[in-house]
């Protein structure tokens, strides 16, 4: 029987191509969810001297926890389509469920990167300029965290606004996340994906640069 090659993620029979992916998606999902919920509970139960930093950590944990929820959904749909994924692949990738969990993963990724960048820059300013008034107050912290979540939400939902430009942005593969660009992708969607991943790369580099800067 002639069968198409796997793309490394999905196969002819299953949404997740092999047993390793199917097992680890559940393991990683539970670790992410349990770990972040544990940190949120721990930070809520014990008083901290820097309540503003605690707020930022809780917010980061919430963003990371969304990725665990996304993985749980992927694992659940993998079980649902087990053995007959080829019959449902097109319907699945064009479904509202796929679009929503894809946007959830995008929201989690973008908010996590922006939150880490914000927290690193805040600590950097406090360490390098200890006698200046760079420490954010409660109002400034709330405004910053709200802005980060709002910006992450906007980034995640923009592909829904114009189907002519973005096409099926989150339905490029079985896991509903734009992992890479291809020649069949619309130019607008390709440019958007490139801008997002370049922005993430710059965010990670800025965090590492601040952390590794001497002195």
TrEMBL record:
The chain crosses the membrane at residues 19-43, 55-79, 99-121, 142-161. Gene3D superfamilies: Rhodopsin 7-helix transmembrane proteins. GO terms for biological process: adenylate cyclase-activating G protein-coupled receptor signaling pathway; hormone-mediated signaling pathway. GO terms for cellular component: plasma membrane. It is found in: Membrane. Residues 35-215 form the G-protein coupled receptors family 1 profile domain. Signal peptide: none annotated. InterPro entries: GPCR_Rhodpsn, GPCR_Rhodpsn_7TM, Relaxin_rcpt. One of its GO terms (molecular function) is G protein-coupled peptide receptor activity. Its main location: membrane. The keyword Transport does not apply. The keyword Magnesium does not apply. Keywords: Glycoprotein, Leucine-rich repeat, Membrane, Repeat, Transmembrane, Transmembrane helix. This is Relaxin family peptide receptor 2, like.
């Amino acid at each position: 029987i002639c069968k198409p090659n796997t793309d490394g993620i999905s196969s002819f029979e299953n949404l997740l191509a092999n047993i390793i992916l199917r097992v680890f998606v559940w393991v990683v999902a539970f670790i992410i969810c349990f770990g972040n919920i544990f940190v949120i509970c721990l930070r809520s139960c014990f008083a901290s001297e820097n309540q503003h930093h605690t707020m930022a950590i809780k917010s980061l944990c919430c963003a990371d926890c969304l990725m665990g929820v996304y993985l749980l959904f992927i694992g659940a749909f993998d079980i649902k389509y087990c053995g007959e994924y080829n019959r449902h692949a097109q319907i699945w990738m064009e479904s509202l469920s796929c679009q929503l969990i894809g946007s959830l993963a995008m929201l989690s990724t973008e908010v996590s990167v922006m939150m880490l960048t914000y927290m690193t820059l805040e600590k950097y300013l406090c360490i390098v300029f200890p006698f200046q008034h760079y420490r954010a107050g409660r109002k400034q912290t709330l405004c910053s965290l709200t802005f980060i979540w709002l910006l992450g939400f906007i980034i995640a939902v923009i592909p829904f606004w114009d189907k002519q430009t973005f096409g099926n942005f989150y339905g490029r593969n079985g896991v509903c996340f734009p992992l890479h660009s291809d020649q069949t992708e619309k130019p607008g969607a390709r440019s958007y994906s490139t801008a997002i991943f370049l922005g993430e790369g710059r965010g990670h580099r800025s965090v590492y640069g601040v952390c590794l800067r001497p002195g």
